[in-house]
Write a structure and sequence with these properties.
Elements (H helix, E strand, L loop, with lengths): L1 E6 L3 H10 L5 E7 L3 H15 L5 E3 L2 H6 L5 E4 L6 H10 L3 E5 L6 H14 L3 E4 L6 H11 L6 E9 L6 H4 L1 H4 L3 H17 L5 E9 L12 E8 L4 E7 L7 E8 L2 E6 L7 E3 L15 E3 L5 H4 L2 H14 L7 H20 L3 E2 L4
Parallel strand pairs: 1-2, 1-4, 2-3, 4-5, 5-6, 7-10
Antiparallel strand pairs: 7-11, 8-9, 8-15, 9-10, 11-12, 13-14
């Protein structure tokens, strides 16, 4: 049984811990928040869900990382805290899983990668997209040759904007919608076209179309990614779309096409009275509603953590590593450079 400690008490921490309920060989033994009362409230809520108390609450990151019951640390914190949190986990010899994006820039991601490599600790990059059930099925079909040679991918992830204030501060977060949401679709492109088939060039456009009162970062972005093998991926990232999440992929091959929609739901209807939480970024509690059952499973959080905990127990390299997170950041660096230059930019990983 792997002892898990989670850093964070916000929205993504809730999603992660919900997903951990499906991991039979893991036990949540500690949690951290900057506010000890908030850490205590988080532990009370999830301890009740797990049917057993979460043993330790902390308002100090290093104290959680030093806890002997914690073997694997999950970093579910704002982007600007990732370097320090990973450094402290590595200092105490703990395995570490870090939420996406790994960092704010390629250089910062390389710093994080070097920390775990030099410490010799196990590390996994929490990119849930490639673990979601419909993406897994589409990947199996592509690998089986169902649509022939994969030629292009178009993906879009959108909602009406982040739930927490730290996302809106582009100076500390490192970017806007492209960094926040494009990291998902960049990695799904690498996953489908092959990590041995690198993205060599990127072109991107971004603008602040709606939320100029909240952020200097882009709330809308489009990027095109060119692969060494000649294939092309187009990704769209949005913080301006009302009505819930949009999580869609379209794959075109020489012998067919596939479409996935992670936010599609078998439950929908018209309601006049609120019923509580419906779906991430729902924006409305009445009228036509489209709740997504079992979000932690639909979006791949449960599957992701089952894979990570199994790999950690066995001492195996996970499917998503900090090296993957670093490469994603390097690709996004090229996208941001292209936003400024207006031309295709080379992806630099050296």
């Amino acid at each position: 049984m792997v002892g898990i400690g989670i850093l964070g008490s916000g929205f993504i921490s809730d999603q992660y811990v919900d997903g951990l309920q499906d991991v039979r060989n893991a036990r949540l033994v500690a949690n951290y928040s900057r506010s000890l009362p908030r850490a205590t409230a988080f532990a009370a809520k999830w301890g009740q869900a797990f049917g057993e108390p979460i043993a330790a609450q902390y308002d100090d990151i290093e104290a959680l990382c030093a806890d002997p019951a914690v073997e694997l640390v999950i970093v579910a914190l704002p982007n600007e805290v990732h370097v320090d949190a990973v450094r402290l986990a590595a200092k105490h010899g703990k395995g570490v899983i870090c939420t996406k994006p790994l960092a704010r820039t390629g250089a910062e991601a390389k710093q994080i990668l070097d920390i775990v490599n030099e410490a010799g600790v196990w590390a996994g990059y929490a990119e849930c997209s490639v673990f979601s059930p419909n993406i897994v099925k589409a990947f199996e079909m592509v690998r089986a040759g169902g649509i022939g040679e994969l030629l292009t991918m178009r993906a879009r992830e959108g909602h009406s904007g982040p739930h927490a204030a730290h996302f809106w501060n582009a100076e500390t977060a490192g970017g806007g919608a492209l960094l926040d949401m494009g990291c998902h679709t960049v990695e799904s492109a690498r996953h489908f076209f092959g990590k041995d088939n690198p993205i060599t060039e990127a072109w991107a456009w971004g603008a602040t179309l709606v939320h100029g009162d909240k952020t200097t970062g882009e709330d809308t972005a489009v990027a095109m990614l060119k692969f060494a093998g000649g294939q092309m991926a187009t990704i769209e990232s949005s913080w301006i779309e009302k009505g819930g999440m949009q999580l869609r992929h379209e794959f075109v091959g020489s012998a067919g096409r596939l479409v996935t929609d992670s936010s599609a739901t078998p439950v929908w209807g018209f309601i006049q009275n609120p019923v509580g939480y419906l779906v991430e970024k729902a924006d409305a509690q009445t009228g036509w509603v489209y709740p997504v059952p079992e979000e932690a499973r639909a979006y791949g959080f449960s599957q992701q953590f089952r894979h990570f905990v199994d790999a950690f127990e066995k001492g195996e390299t996970p499917d998503e590593t900090f090296e993957d997170g670093w490469i994603v950041n390097c690709i996004l660096d090229a996208c941001y450079a292209s936003m400024n230059s207006g031309v295709w930019e080379t992806v630099k990983t050296a």
